Amino acid sequence: MKLPPGPKTPAWLLALQFEANPFTYMDANSQLYGDMVTRMLGSTPIIYVSNPLAIKQIFTNREITASGTLNQDFALFTGTQGILQLDGLIHKNRRKLLMQAFHGTRMQACGRRICELTQKMMTRQAIDKPFIAYSIIEEITLSIGIEVVVGLPEGKRYNKLKHLFVSMFKSERSKLFKFITKLPLGNRDLGRWSPEGYMLHLRQEIFQLLYAEVQERRQQADYLRTDMLTDLIFAADETGEPLSNQEVRDLLLSPIFAAQDASGTAIAWSLYWIHRLPAIRARLLEEIDSLGENPDPMNIVTLPYLNAVCNEALRIYPTQLFAFPRLVESTVEMMGYELNPGTILIANIYSTHQREDLYPNPKEFQPERFLEKQFSPYEFLPFGGGSRVCIGGTFALFEMKLILATILANYELELVSQRPERPKYGGLICYPASGVKMVIRGLRQNQRQSQSSVVGLV
User: I need a labelling partner for 195 at 20 to 30 A (CA). Which of 5, 251, 274, 368 fits?
Assistant: First the structure.
């Protein structure tokens, strides 16, 4: 088997180079080796692909499978029966069940709630006092995720679950956590005072809380509730049997992470680009204002320029840099290479989105790209693709548009610094390194609030 070219550097050194600056690393690899880059993991070839034709083959060829065994590393956060770990008919059944929550008439009510929560969180920010936009947006998206997915109202269990998720995210991203886990015994469970032990403790607490909620809701049997948990409690599996409480609990985790992580990161990046480029902000505000006061959320999400801005934010720094891995089951030919069974293929989302032939001047933020051209799902794939495309991708974009429109329509924001925001990679997520520092200068003049209410916020 002749493999595509790739660096001969030892795997440990490649990992360090990637972690130091993943974007410079991937840009250099694309220039040196082209559309398919091979890395060896022991005797297993892992091939990163950034050619749309090859990506289409990865997502559609039956000889290339999206095996759940390749996603076992995520079981720490999603449970052993989460959507990422399932295969075959079971996976297909569970995806269908989860997708039902993101469609239909309930989205309109959900849209109104997203706008309300955004307003509630933003009114807590003082005028002329700098804040970290990413932190505020994460709080908004996590609240939305818990409400939409679990259906928990604000209260003791809601607050505790929210606190646990926030603690998990902060721990995973902290420099101390990353440093310690690289030490010889750093990734071992040495109790709650060790990074691994603390993460396992948080995981156990989250799992227990969600399991208790599943148990109670099953006993209540309220068919009128409209959250994802209710859908799963009354759903049947591929054999017609109800899902177990553990299955329901594990299936809730990925949608919560998707609603919080993917949306929160993309919105923070959008706020940065919109306020760094005045012409984009002006055009976007003109479009949003054209809907009048208190627009219907379902009208907001159809705005073409808002959609283009969101897509461009997802293109330039996609929330996940890679699609979930695929496994070659039988010998296949791809781009002139013959790939043997056991080869792992990974669609490189970032490098695909940086292709000059698809996106001229790819480092520049240009929303007009998405008004001038319709990109295929193999050219623009911010949420992955094929049978492992993110189940919350549609909802993440829906949420993204409404939160952005609500903030922009109501508040005059500025960036605290004009220094370029650097991307930082953590886990699967590419987030702004400084969190996008912003300040609210006041409410927008076209809002109904009187000047006295503006003064009251100061």
Answer: 251
